[in-house]
Design goal:
Elements: E1 6-15, E2 18-28, E3 33-37, H1 44-51, E4 59-64, E5 67-68, H2 74-80, E6 82-84, H3 97-103, H4 113-118, H5 121-140, H6 156-168, E7 174-178, H7 186-203, E8 206-210, H8 214-220, E9 223-228, E10 231-236, H9 238-242, H10 245-252
């Protein structure tokens, strides 16, 4: 069997007497497009925080390409190939659009501190490459014409795009999107659906999204995992999940 890209093995996260995620196991393969859904407070963002090193699981293992991430810092996990966006946009608001992209490349920089101090040829060549790659990435998101604007001056939908582009600038194997459609109108959500497919296909990476917009989830996710009160209560394709009695009960609050 092919080794999963991401493998969660019985992960649990406790905060004192509160168990936010309990004994969750699932795997994600390369180029999978996956959704994690569930009511508010189900443990979805906590799960993302364990994957990205913000939290260390109380129990269980998070594995990337078979390597345990439990003892890794968030910055190390980014270098290993996981990038994320956040439910509340976290751009460098007072930096330009292109500088938001360029700063994300720091994990891949090859020149040394001294190269930077003395502006060596290696430094100049790599900075030129970073500039070119950043412009290409912005062009893919139709943001290249706005490269010199401050990030805070972009419209909301464009800020969402910039945050995704910045995450992709770290050259991840796995991209985590935390409620990317939050605050978007139907037209923007439709564009987002196309964009997520484009990202997966263009960069050949796996994508996991947390999302409350069920129409978006059912349209794009190839596999869906459902959390409720920290427990994994269902998994499968869109048809199986939306017809699962446990899922219906979790969302509607009544037994079927």
């Amino acid at each position: 069997m092919t080794q999963p890209l991401l493998d969660l093995k019985n992960v649990t996260m406790r905060f004192g007497g509160l168990t936010a995620v309990k004994d969750v196991s699932f795997s994600v393969n390369k180029t999978d497009l996956v959704a994690v859904i569930g009511p508010n407070g189900a443990g979805k963002t906590t799960l993302f925080n364990m994957i990205t090193g913000i939290y260390t699981p109380s129990e269980g293992q998070v594995l990337l390409d078979g390597l345990s991430l439990n003892d890794k810092q968030a910055s190390d996990i980014t270098s290993l190939g996981i990038a994320r966006t956040f439910q509340n946009i976290r751009l460098f608001n007072n930096l330009s659009v292109i500088d938001n992209i360029k700063i994300a490349r720091h994990t891949r920089i090859q020149y040394s501190f001294l190269d930077g101090i003395f502006k060596t040829k290696k430094y100049r060549n790599e900075e030129k490459l970073i500039e070119e790659e950043s412009l290409k990435l912005l062009a893919l998101f139709n943001l290249d014409s706005k490269k010199d604007l401050l990030a805070k001056n972009l419209p909301y939908g464009a800020q969402r795009k910039l945050e995704m582009a910045r995450a992709l600038a770290t050259k991840p194997k796995l991209l985590l999107l935390d409620e990317p459609a939050a605050g978007m109108n139907p037209t923007e959500t439709k564009e987002l659906s196309e964009l997520i497919h484009f990202i997966r296909d263009q960069f050949q990476i796996a994508v996991i999204l947390i999302e409350h917009d069920m129409r978006l989830v059912m349209e794009i996710a190839e596999k869906i995992f459902v959390l409720d009160y920290g427990n994994l209560i269902a998994s499968g394709n869109a048809f199986n999940v939306q017809n699962n009695p446990k899922v219906i009960e979790a969302y509607l609050g009544a037994e079927i």
